[in-house]
């Protein structure tokens, strides 16, 4: 993966640095492209066959191009000066030349022999400089022979390859019994093989190719200094933190504990496996299955989780697998969308109940939204503004469901107990907390989980505070309904004052309105029945379809992301409500659901979080490559593993929630005290780590 360095990043990396480019016109082009990363306004002007100087005095960055088109005595003298102790050495040296030697000597074999002799004399000097500076020898790019001018016809790819082979052979053998410190920069040659046909003169690369080469050169030098997450080359693996080491020990002990406990239980079961039948004098099998103890379930869960976390670490921290940049095309986004849509329609079943937003339907809704978001992330579709705006609606729809679901539960059940709160918070945050520890990432990095956690807390506090108003208490009493609306109005006021999104509030308000209408039997929720009378249903359906399409047309016509984002919180609820009505007003649509989408909906949270490290890579900025050279097979294999892991983590979270969150309040408070101590210790270790890093 290649990190796109911005101006301030480049200046930060090259602060107080001196970079020297030495060579011919091709090296001069690379010099210009490199300097334009630091200063895009730098112009390509001046005498082409002279030295060119650039300096940014504010950042104290100096970049020089030194005109030495041949590997000869002149280049040797220039390099030799830098080897003297009294002279300031460049921190980075980029050198390369050959085409002038071929051109001047008409491609003679004597010129190649002289080139070998000259580069042999220069190699020890470059090696000496490479002990304290970064030295790169740029291999010669191929040419496009068909459009070369007459005075360059002697430049053939065959001769260029011979010169490159000579340079590589001599520079790699310049030190005895050790690897050369001079780095061969071959990427320019590889890029030229694909793009030289776009050259205007057959010799020099097009500007876009030069920019890419310069950016790669910046990555090669700066990645180990700035350590960008999406720059996967040329930087060492980050060292394990103390917290990561402790986590590894914990999982290893869990695995050993589970194995030892399994052996003990197996031996105990083996003794009781055969019991004598006193009447027949024979032995018969004891077919009683002994259920797993809570300790066994706990150790088994941590054992599986430890193996899964090891896979996470190997995929996105250990530099074991390759990563690649995303490149968006319309087909890479829309073809998978069509494919999953067909699968979703094909696998459909009847719902157990036909209420609005019943459990199967909300799972289906979460499932197809999550699949669309996954395709959006892996295809890099955020660069296409209409798709970006529609995906923002899907994220808003998740928040709408958060408001709708939690309000409905508290309103109907009236369960404000600490057990319910702990269950929800555990299921939301368990995986993220583990990943923060294992992957050394801050909690806010997994932004969606903190977001829904905060909103759940706000909903709980709003409804739990005095006066506690629930459906049973407010039944048939308009006063309590009015009081609840006042609480919701106060919440809306706070949301608007703090400039938060109102989507969760809209979900709560929709839930209140729907449940009130349901209680008064205004809605027809029988199987196959429209939600309202035919006339009202048809009218609402028409308005919903128009509203849905209006938002899509507006989102597709967006020209500026910032302006559209400003309006999005206000208008996104229109498309969400339109979808709900379209999905629920017709009785036949409300009576069926897609079991395919619903299955993914049940693990949507795990899918959203796991994608960061084992499907995508570099914290979602790239794509994980398990199988290089075969993108289709790679995506199939990585997706299969990713979905299986997400499903397994969902099961582990459910199992641990049953054990770690007891129903008894006394035991639960003790567990919470232990968890509080754990997080205090974690924060203490984290602060110690931060101090040691700085």
What's a concise summary of this model?
The protein is an alpha/beta fold. It has 25 helices and 13 strands.
Protein architecture, described:
This protein has 694 residues and is α/β, with parallel strands linked by helices. It is built from 25 helices and 13 strands. The strands form 4 sheets. Strands 2-3-1-4-5-6 form a 6-stranded mixed sheet, with helices on both faces. Helix 10 packs antiparallel against helix 24 (631-660), helix 12 (359-379) packs antiparallel against helix 13 and helix 23 crosses helix 24. The longest helix has 30 residues, at 242-271. It starts with 6 loop residues before the first helix and ends with a helix. This is N-acetylneuraminate 9-O-acetyltransferase isoform X3.
Tell how many strands the DSSP assignment holds.
13
Rg, rounded, reads: 33 Å
The tally of helices reads: 25
What assembly state would you assign to the polypeptide chains in this entry?
A: single chain
Give the termini distance in whole angstroms.
Answer: 27 Å
Helix content: 55-70%
Low-confidence stretches: none
Report the portion of residues in β strands. Answer: 5-15%
Neighbour order of strands in the largest sheet: 2-3-1-4-5-6
> What is the average per-residue confidence, as pLDDT, rounded to a whole number?
92
Major sheet details: 6 strands, mixed
Q: What is the approximate shape?
A: elongated
Helix/strand/pairing category: alpha/beta
Organism: Echinops telfairi (Lesser hedgehog tenrec)
Protein name: N-acetylneuraminate 9-O-acetyltransferase isoform X3
């Amino acid at each position: 993966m290649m990190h796109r360095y911005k101006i301030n990043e480049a200046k930060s990396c090259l602060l107080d640095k001196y970079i020297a480019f030495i060579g011919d016109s091709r090296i001069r082009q690379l010099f210009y492209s490199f300097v334009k990363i630091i200063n895009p306004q730098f112009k390509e002007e001046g005498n082409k066959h002279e030295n060119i100087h650039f300096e940014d005095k504010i950042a104290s960055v100096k970049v020089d191009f030194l005109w030495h088109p041949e590997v000869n005595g002149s280049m040797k003298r220039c390099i030799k000066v830098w080897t003297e102790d009294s002279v300031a050495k460049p921190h980075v040296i980029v050198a390369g030349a050959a085409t002038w030697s071929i051109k001047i000597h008409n491609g003679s074999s004597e010129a190649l022999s002289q080139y070998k002799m000259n580069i042999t004399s220069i190699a020890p000097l470059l090696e000496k400089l490479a002990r304290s500076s970064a030295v790169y020898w740029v291999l010669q790019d191929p040419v496009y022979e068909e459009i070369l001018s007459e005075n360059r016809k002697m430049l053939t790819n065959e001769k260029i390859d011979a010169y490159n082979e000579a340079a590589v052979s001599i520079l790699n053998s310049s030190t005895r019994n050790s690897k050369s410190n001079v780095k061969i920069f071959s990427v320019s040659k590889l890029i030229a093989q694909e793009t030289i046909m776009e050259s205007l003169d057959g010799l020099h690369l097009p500007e876009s190719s030069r920019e890419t080469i310069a950016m790669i050169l910046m990555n090669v030098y700066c990645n180990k200094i700035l350590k960008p997450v999406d720059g996967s080359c040329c930087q060492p693996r980050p060292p394990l933190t103390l917290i990561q080491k402790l986590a590894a020990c914990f999982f290893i002990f869990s695995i050993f504990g589970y194995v030892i406990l399994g052996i003990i239980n197996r031996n105990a079961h083996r003794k009781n496996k055969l019991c004598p039948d006193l009447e027949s004098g024979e032995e018969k099998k004891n077919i009683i299955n002994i259920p797993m103890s809570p300790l066994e379930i706990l150790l088994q869960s941590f054992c599986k989780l430890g193996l899964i976390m090891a896979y996470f670490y190997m995929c996105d921290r250990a530099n074991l697998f390759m990563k690649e940049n995303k490149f968006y095309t319309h087909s890479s986004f829309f073809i998978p969308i069509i494919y999953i849509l067909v699968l979703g329609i094909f696998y459909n079943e009847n719902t157990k109940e036909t209420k609005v937003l019943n459990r199967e339907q909300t799972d289906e809704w979460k499932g197809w939204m999550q699949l669309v978001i996954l395709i959006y992330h892996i295809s890099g579709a955020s660069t296409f503004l209409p798709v970006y705006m529609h995906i923002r609606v899907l994220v808003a729809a998740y928040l709408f469901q958060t408001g709708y679901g939690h309000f409905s539960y508290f309103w109907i059940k009236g369960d404000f107990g600490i057990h319910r709160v702990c269950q929800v918070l555990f299921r939301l945050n368990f995986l993220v907390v583990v990943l923060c520890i294992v992957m050394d990432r801050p909690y806010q990095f997994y932004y969606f989980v903190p977001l829904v956690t905060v909103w759940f807390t706000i909903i709980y506090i709003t409804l739990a505070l005095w006066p506690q108003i629930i459906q049973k208490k407010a039944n048939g009493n308009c006063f309590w309904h009015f009081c609840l609306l006042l609480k919701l109005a106060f919440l809306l006021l706070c949301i608007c004052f703090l400039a938060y999104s109102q989507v969760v509030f809209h979900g709560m308000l929709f839930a209140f309105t729907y449940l009130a209408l349901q209680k008064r039997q205004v809605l027809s929720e029988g199987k196959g029945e429209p939600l309202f009378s035919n006339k009202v249903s048809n009218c609402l359906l028409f308005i919903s379809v128009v509203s849905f399409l209006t938002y899509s047309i507006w989102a597709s016509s967006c020209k500026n992301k910032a302006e559209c984002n400003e309006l999005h919180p206000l208008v996104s609820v229109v498309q969400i409500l339109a979808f709900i009505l379209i999905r629920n007003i017709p009785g036949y649509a409300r009576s069926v659901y897609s079991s395919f989408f619903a299955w993914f909906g049940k693990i949507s949270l795990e899918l959203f979080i796991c994608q960061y490290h084992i499907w995508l890579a570099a914290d979602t900025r790239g794509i994980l490559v398990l199988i290089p050279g075969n993108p289709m097979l790679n995506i199939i294999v990585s997706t299969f593993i990713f979905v299986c892991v997400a499903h397994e983590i969902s099961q582990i979270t459910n199992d641990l929630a049953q054990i770690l969150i007891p129903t008894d309040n006394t035991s639960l408070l003790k567990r919470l005290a232990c968890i509080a101590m754990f997080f205090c210790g974690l924060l203490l270790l984290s602060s110690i780590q931060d101090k040691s890093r700085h």
